[in-house]
Amino acid sequence: MTLHAMAYTATGVERFDDLGSAADAEGETWIHADAVESAEMGRLRERFDIHQLAVEDVIHTETRPKVEEFDTHTFVLLKTARLGQSEAVEFEKEIRTSPVGLFIGEDWLVTMSTSDIDIVDPSTSRWAKNSDRVADRGSDFLAYRIMDAIVDDYFAVLDEIEDDIESVEERVVDDPSPRILEELNDVRRDLLAFRKTAWPAREALSYLSRGDIPQVADENEKYFRDVYDHLVQVVDLIETYRDLSSGSRDIYLNSVSQSTNEVMKTLTVVATIFIPLTFVVGIYGMNFADTPLAMPELYWEYGYPAVMIGMGLVTVLMLLYFRRQDWI
């Protein structure tokens, strides 16, 4: 198990290599660990009275973001998100999430993750210069900073999705190819997957910001409300982008339908023109030359040219009529 342990005091930040020293350190203690089964994880759970089911929620990647209260701490589950290359389909992107569990105690914070996440080093470097602020405001303030960093990354994902939507919108009218529809469906799937992460996270932050949790100090509630406001904005943007992608898909379908209608209209005009021509040719194909009611044109020197010219005139007149009616 990879373990990062540090204690924030008014004089600075102290790092630890073992769990025992970090747990007994003075100040606000922050321990970050990979959520895997090991003897060290067992000692960590025992030392801070962390329930096994909470650890399993972090390990199981399908668990929704949530908040749970225990006797000695509050458990918050959030998920990091990024837009990465799909492993199944080449040149296709997909939302990749990774759960992060935060256990907020009275003067300690334990975070767990199933993969490498960019919250430990940036947070450590930032608050190493302001350790007195963390020491004064408590472990819940440090938890807020980590949650805020996770939510801020959501906006970067939305920026990438917005770029994809704009790229598709530029091509959906000029080149409504089947590839465009595939890209639109990919964007809609990404937004749906992202919504499943952001929506429950918003509910969790709403619960944290209401002042119902003893581990969250009254003076720090406004910071959790700020993260909640950001999540509200994220959810609103997701819904907006879903509407844009749906609108682009409708434009694509309308363009394809219009193109099909143009083709059908052209084919209909051609078929209509050939109806009278086929009628004339059918009459002259009956071969009634040796009967008393034989057509006199059969023995006329200019009969064949006259019929061809007549058929040509019929075609021209029909084209002029279709043009006047704005059918072609």
Question: How would you characterize this protein structure?
Answer:
The radius of gyration is 36 Å and the shape is rod-shaped. The protein is of the alpha+beta class and 328 residues long. Helix content is 58%, strand content 16%. A hairpin with a 2-residue loop joins β1 (3-9) and β2 (12-16). The longest helix has 64 residues, at 221-284. α6 (139-172) packs parallel to α8. Strands 2-1-3-7-6-5-4 form a seven-stranded mixed β-sheet, with helices on both faces. The protein has nine helices and seven strands, in the order ββαβααββββαααααα.
Short description:
By secondary structure, this protein is of the alpha+beta class. 58% of the residues lie in helices and 16% in strands.
The end-to-end span amounts to 74 Å
Q: Roughly what is the average pLDDT, rounded to an integer?
A: 81
| Poorly predicted segments | none
Tertiary shape: rod-shaped
Walk across the major sheet and give the strand order: 2-1-3-7-6-5-4
Helix content: 55-70%
Percentage of residues in strands? 15-25%
Instruction: Give the count of structural domains.
Output: 2
